[in-house]
Every structure is written in C-alpha cells, then in structure tokens.
Amino acid sequence: MRALPLWIRFYAIAMTVFILTPLAVVVIAAFNSAEYNVFPPPGFSTRWLQKAVTDPEFIGPLWNSVVLGATTTLGTAIVGVPAALLLARHSFRFKQELEAFLLSPLTLPHIVLATGMLFYVNMIGLGSNFIGLLAGHMVITLPYMLRTVYSVYAGINRDIEEASAVLGASPIRTFFQVTLPMIRPGILAGGIFAFLISFDEVPIALLLTNVTNVTLPVSILSYLIYSYDPTVAAISTVQILIVAVLLFVLDRAFGLNNLVFTSR
Fold first, then answer.
1. Which CATH number fits the domain that encloses residue 112?
2. Res 71 pLDDT > 90
3. pTM of the model
C-alpha cells in the first residue's frame, strides 16, 4: 500500500494532538496540589482524586449514570434492532417518513428535546423519575443503534436467512441462530454509542432528574456552581478512565474495527 503524503500525516497528527490536549490538561489538573484550579499545577497531589472516588456527592451519581447508561443501552437495543431489520428488509408505505421520524433526534439540539420531554413526561404522568429519564435518554440514543444495525444488516446476503427457512427453521430460530450472530457487530457498536452518549448527557438529565436519580454530569455541573477546586478534574479523569477501559475491553474481545466496519 502506498504511503500517505507527508502533509496528510502531519494533519492527522496535528488533529490528534488538538483533540487530546484538553483531555491531558484535565488529567494533569486532577493531580493539582493547589486549593483551586491552576495550570500548570504548582505541585503533585492525589487528594482530589481520593476525594472524587470517596465523596458520596459523586459516587452515588456515578452509579446512577452507569445504571442509566446500561438500561438505556438495553432498551435502545430492544426497540432499535427490530426497527432496523424492518427498514432494511421491507418496503411499505411511509417507510421513508418512519425512518426520518426515528432519526429526527439527530437534527435537534438536546436542550430542545429535553424541554419537550419535560412537558411530555409530566403530561402523561411519569414526572421526574427514572422512567421518564430513561425514556429521554432512549430518544437521543435510538438513532445510533438504528443506523449501525441498519448498515450491517443491509449488507448481509439475504440468501443465508432464506436457506435457514428452507431447511425448516422457524422465523424465531432463524433470527436467534442466523440473523442475530451476523448483526452482532452492529448491535455492539450501537450499544457503545448509546452507553457513552447516555453516560455524558446533560440537558435531558438536568431537566428530568430528581434528588434520587441525579446523574454524574448533573452533579458535576451543580458542584461547579459553588466550587472551583480540582475535584471536578479528578472525577472527569475517572470518567475518562471508565470510557477508556470500556473501549479497551471491547477492542480486546471483539476488535473495534470489526464492530464498526464488518459484519462477520
């Protein structure tokens, strides 16, 4: 394979540095010895990191965010996978309108969606509880699951499923033993996007949360209103670590290239 031109390699390196530098600044600030955020730090200390991982003000919301992210991912898969299979394999009236409706959250700012969800969940009686918060997160993550599964399933040879039916397998058995293994990369890729987006969501969580299901981003935002110490940098470092570990595990188990680009 011919090597990339020098200017493209330089551009790629420059963009990588530009994207990663803010993360590096946050991680370095987490070990600041000063009483307030200052960069570069005057000294090294782990007390802010210790506070971040022991303070109930952050540990509870962190657990809430993990549970909410996992539940959102599961719910999005339950809704998004059948929708993707329907859109990829069948032609029917208003198909394009249905697809545009399911993907429409991508075109709206989250604060607009959050405001609409606030009025809607109260109108139907859900209020500011976990179910309403889960519904709001599923709305914004559904398009990612839909697109990844749709892309993988559309590239699969339909003859494989038809051969399973010819050999006597029922539609349910064909789905679980033939279709599901083939679209697994799309489901896993969509699940990654769904979890990470839910884990980091602010507007919807801010308007639909209550005192019992405060998420980590909302807790961080509330803390910043009254404090300017490096604790937020420390808890943000923990967030970065969680995401990095998740991506590493998925890469070792499945390969991120396989999750996104193939349908084996």
1. 1.10.3720.10
2. yes
3. 0.79
